[in-house]
Amino acid sequence: MRWRVNKKRGLLRAIFEEGVRTIFKLYFTLLHRIRVEGHERLPRDVDKLIVISNHASLLDGIILWTYIDIDLKILVNRVRARELLLRPFMQNRYTVQIDTMNPYSLKGIIEEVNRGIALLVFPEGRITGTGNLMKIYEGTGFVAYKTGARILPVHLGNTYETIYSKKRKGRKVFAPITLTIGEVRAPIDVERFQPRDRKREAARAIYEMLCEMFYEAHYRPSTLGREFMRICKEQGKKTLFKDATGAQVSYRKGLMGALVLGRKFSAFPVSNIGVFLPNLVATALLIFGLEIYRKVPVLLNYSSGPGALKHAMDLADLEVIVTSRTFLERIKVQPSLFEGKQVVYVEDLRRTIGVADRIGGILKAVFPGTLTRIDPGQHRETAVILFTSGSEGVPKGVCLSHDNIIANIWQSLSRIDVGGGDYFLNALPMFHSFGLTVGTILPVFAGARSFLYVSPLHYRIVPEIAYDEGCTILMGTNTFLSGYGRKAHPYDFHGMRYIFCGAEALSDTVFERYAKVFGIRVMSGYGVTECAPVVCMNSALEHEYGTVGKVLPGIEYKLMPVAGIDNKEGRSGRLFVKGRNIMKGYLKNEAANRKYLVEDEGWYDTGDIVEVDESGFVKIVGRLKRFSKISGEMISLTAVEEALSGLFGERKETAIMAVSDERKGEKLVLVTNSKEADLKKARERLRERGLPDLASPREIAYMREIPKLGTGKVDYVKLGEFLLKENGR
Description:
There is one protein chain. With 729 residues, this protein is of the alpha/beta class. It is globular and about 90 Å long. β18, α18 and β19 form a beta-alpha-beta unit. A nine-stranded mixed beta sheet has the order 9-8-17-16-18-19-20-21-22, with helices on both faces. The protein has a seven-stranded mixed beta sheet with strand order 1-7-6-2-5-3-4, sandwiched between helices. Among the domains are: 11-218, 3-Layer(aba) Sandwich (Glycerol-3-phosphate (1)-acyltransferase), CATH 3.40.1130; 631-727, ANL, C-terminal domain (GMP Synthetase, Chain A, domain 3, 2-Layer Sandwich).
């Protein structure tokens, strides 16, 4: 039963159309094993409707016309429609032509929709050359909000792999295709915006829908081990990982290596395995091997100090630790730290791997048996245990499930233009959620390759690797990016497409240096370990400097008012988030888990105060714990730090702490390694940035080196201890 039957259409035409659809369905079924999901969501009674889809091949319009049970007209480019080979397909009763060079041609499109024509639009206006979403033309948004039409978003999966796409290498005759049909959306409402901004905001709304459809189409309940095996088989001989020792593996060899390592540790009668290793190929394969054999890697922060390490090992009930003698010597950690544990050194482990193990790995790669099976609920089991930075207290153990990490990867990939041709440079340690999820696991899902480097602190070496290897994507914290920017040659980042900054605020100094010296825009994001970790991110398609981008698809958020902080008509407050990417819970912390799971009904309290503008871009105001109450007014210490960044020299650092004050309750102290620091100069800078006089530091404390965590964040616990010692408090 068709959604709208044209009674004037003759019987012969109806028979012809159904016959053509049958032929197309036969072709797509036999050659592309097409899978259609969400067919029941097709609307049956809508006056005005616009269907939007991503556009990756010449087949896209035919697929949608064949399977979407609606009388559609496809919007096509008039210039393209005149091309000899395309003319039969683009000049007929099933298409509506538009002259993209003539803005008045939109008037005719609007009239078509207002007459009740269901219109199929590819908002990108062209076939993608990358496989990812490209820029969205504002014309689609203009038609949508002017007509008040409802929107039906759909996603075509894997058509980029077919011979009808613009992919340069690896196109397939029999590439499988998926069609995911979304829920019908309400008409786009942009009335709250100024008239000059409505087209832009409507186009952004269209983009958001397509991103959400990408996430919905790609996410499937699974496990990291199963996905790693599937992807490695698909990618075959492509390079997977490489490191500074010269080790390099393809996806195929990486799978065999992971199977060998995982099988070795499957013999231990414990579920948790401690991993105390730097970024190496062996480390990544060990983690994936443990996932395949259903062990839980507990990634230990080797920069956190003996006390925090012992706390982490006790919290996770670790009996088995994997480490390296060479690594322990290099970071000056005594083996006695692991007293009472069974320590497996990779040097010894390597010698125990023989021919039989390698043959076993090959056989398991070909005949995986139960390793690829997923039991009910297994995707919700703990996949990895990480530890919070401890910048404000004792590190907490965070249990992330397979579901958490896989969901967050697809949420991130829905926004960023990353594909199989990219080369990641990951110097962020894997014990950090940014370095693990985004730097190590996400490239695997994207079919890309990664260079794993042992330390983000080698400021001269990291840019040199980027140059030698021709890396295209770099991730780092503001601190690390600042170090690379000072040491790098202007040509070191010549092949870099994207640089992402997370874990701490991106400073003006770093952003401007990369833009002016290297010609690269650094894009800032925001996340927390408990969210696996990405919550917001800027991208090439949607970027707003001074913000951390928009909340990712599949993540709900709400803002709760905070006493003493202006909520700006509901646009500012304490950020709570909910979604598949939010952690299972804290390890052995029933009080915190009860609040998160029961009292807050699954909403995770980030503890951060944010401001969300009308377009949805998020600006971090500061952590609630990093606010000081001075003379009754709440002052963000983070905002003060950001304003003073680079004031006393590019290589000089500043941190702001609050101490008790008899007269005003609290006062701010500027902690710095610059002997040229001056309170008057600081006050003038803060006034320039619009901060009140109450935000001006009253004292300066000199510190030769600002203490840092392994992630590059300031260690505020040690700073507090320093100030207590200095002032005798």
